[in-house]
Protein: Leucine-rich repeat-containing N-terminal plant-type domain-containing protein
Organism: Brassica carinata
Amino acid sequence: MTKTTTLLIFLFFTLLLLTTSLSKDLCHKDDKNTLLKIKKSLGNPYNIISWDPKDDCCTWVSVECGDATVNHRVTSLDISDDQISAQIPPEVGDLPYLQTLIFRKLSNLTGPIQPTIAKLKYLRFLRLSWTNLTGPIPGFLGQLKDLEYIDLSYNDLSGYIPSSLAMLPKLGYLELSRNKLTGPIPESFGSFPGEVPDLFLSHNQLTGSIPRSLGKLDFYRIDLSRNKLRGDASMLFGTNKKTWIIDLSRNMFQFDISKVKVAKTVNLLDLNHNGITGSIPVQWTELSLQTFNVSYNRLCGPIPKGGDLQRYDAYAYLHNKCLCGAPLQRCK
């Protein structure tokens, strides 16, 4: 056998091995079977109709797999923007390495938050938003210790906010806005074990007072607007904090704002439609505000001159007890 023949045979087998390696299905067979069950349960929707059992499921649209360290198991499932009339399939709980789970903008996705999600011990990112999910927010979410991001907004979820959510050590973002949640803000929300999460609870039916313990926390973004919360909210402010957004509008808060000092980092400050009393502090002239509104309260006295306070028109100050000065009428 000549050297040329030997070389050709070597190249042939090398190419054969390479082709076999490239054509190998990386997707774990259990994950593929589970995904096909999910597809069937959802009624074979348009966005994932291309899922073909002959193909490697790690190449399917809406699916991502991990690397060799997790044996290429499915780590992300994103079903969004589709015409689906179904509930969240229970089989989602049979993807044991899932880190990201998204069901979003599915107006006919109904039923409760699937209980089998409790099995996803590696879950980091959970977004179930812009759907028609009903029922309570399940307390078992507090057992998924790797959760960093929870978005359950724009649904029809009801009942109390489970206090167990405050047990999540890695939580950095909690979005529960635009639901039908009732009851108070849990007292446990004043003692998150890790970083202080961005907190969005707007457009619900929450009642009661803000737990005093929340005043110990330095929220970067907090939105409690459009609820039925009452009492004192002054503990959320402070010059030693790094708050960027604070929206308390359209509640029933009642406290004297005269001595409330706001962090210079605040970019959005919205307090409209409450029962807040006192006068606007001079310290507020030091703020750089992109959004500001204190209308429909019971504020009195002159609007301090300087900073951004005169940059806003009368709309930001209207319907108070006796506020005066630019941009309102001159003080008498």
Notes: The radius of gyration is 27 Å. The first helix runs from residue 3 to 22.
